[in-house]
Amino acid sequence: MRRFLRFPLYHKIVVANSIFVGLVAVLAAWLTLRTADGVDTLLMLGVVGASVLLAVIITATANAVLVRLALSPLAPIETTAKRVERGELDARCAHSPLADDNLRRLTTVFNGMLDGLAQGRRRQRELAVMVLEAEERERMWLSRELYDDTAQVLATTLLHLRAAARLPQPAGSQALETVRNEIVVAMEGVRKVARRLRPPELDELGLAAAVDAHARLLSEVSGLPIDCRTEAVASRLNTDARLTLYRIVQEALNNAVRHADASHIDVSIRAGRDSIVAEISDDGKGFDPTASSSSTGHSFGLVGMRERAAYLGGGVQVRSRPGSGTTLTVEIPAAGGRTTSDAAETAAWTA
Predict the structure, then answer these.
(1) Average pLDDT score over residue span 175-202
(2) b/e string for 316-325 if b means 16 or more Cβ within 10 A?
(3) What DSSP character marks residue 273?
(4) Are the C-beta atoms of residues 53 and 10 closer than 8 Å to each other?
(5) pLDDT of 296 over the 50 cut
(6) How many Å apart are CA 234 and CA 116, to the nearest integer?
(7) Mean pLDDT of 250-267
(8) By the 8 A CB rule, do 288 and 252 touch?
(9) How is 142-177 classified by DSSP, letter by letter?
(10) Full 3-state SS string of 308-328
(11) Residues with Cβ < 8 Å from 278, sequence gap 6 or more?
(12) Residues 6+ apart with CB under 8 A from 350
């Protein structure tokens, strides 16, 4: 039976039907012989046997042809799958005129799956290009900050040090004080670059403190009130998840400050039963999320946030319409329940 079940579908159907037809024919011949009276038994047996054999052959042949025709629409699906496997990513399966409704639906679903995979590949390529462009912009920003700001300050400081070494007192002391102030400015520039690359609060005090620090900085620079209500959730997220959630919230806040024309922004991070949920809301001008996916302004930000969340098994939802503000909700699966390290994070943050 196991060997039979491993046969191709076509062979299983034909063999099963042929056995059934043969049994029916043998039963009919046996009944005919039992009811025959006054006829030579050997002659009758020969006639019935020949008739049964002919009937089985004709029926099995007709059955094989019909089954072959019925299953023929499956062959293009297999052929198309092999073509895609070989790298012909644009291959699609044509509808067979012999297919019934079920096989037509199967072909439609199969082609739809291939279209979805193709769309996913295009999206990955577009995202890869956008990521490369973003990395290049970040490198350009770092280059300008380090060269135009920090490097220039340090070069000026070096000149002042050389000049101070040749000056008599108290002019030399005043020059050294100028040098000290310039070194402080250079250090602040380095801290600014380092903070942009990775905020120290994220590793030292936790996610809640890092989000609060970034929100305070944005509020000071933009003059826009930003209220944060964040729970200590570090123990329920691993290192990658903490950094990912921080980057998503950071991007959402930056977008709200730059594009929303809002008068107020709210940020909340809370722990659910099986997930961590972050929500960023503003009362700004809003936008059409569907239309923005095709534009270059919001597209990269939203796509990047969704890809970051999807990498961790989470998701991003955007609720917005023109004139009604925007609410962005991020949900990331939690690693476990609340532990005592949450209290430690809260204590360190509030201290």
Answers:
(1) 73
(2) bebebeeeeb
(3) S
(4) no
(5) no
(6) 36
(7) 90
(8) no
(9) HHHIIIIIIIHHHHHHHHHHHHHHTPPTTHHHHHHH
(10) HHHHCCCEEEEEECCCCCEEE
(11) 245, 248, 249, 267, 268, 269, 329, 330, 332
(12) none
For tokens 């940020």, name the residue.
267
- DSSP conformation letters of 45-56: HHHHHHHHHHHH
pLDDT in tens, 148-164: 677 677 777 777 777 77
What band does 34 get if pLDDT is binned at 50, 70 and 90?
low
Write the single-letter amino acid at 330: V
Q: What is the mean pLDDT of the chain?
A: 76
pLDDT at 111 over 70: yes
Match 């942009």 to its residue by tokens: 196
270 vs 347: CA distance, rounded Å? 17
Q: Name the one residue in this structure whose structure tokens are 């029926």.
A: 59
Which pLDDT score, from 0 to 100, does residue 350 have? 35
- Helical H segments across the chain, by residue range: 2-5, 9-35, 41-71, 74-85, 101-144, 152-165, 171-197, 200-204, 207-222, 239-259, 289-292, 296-311, 340-350
Q: How far apart are CA 327 and CA 122, in angstroms?
A: 28
Give the model's pLDDT for residue 331: 92
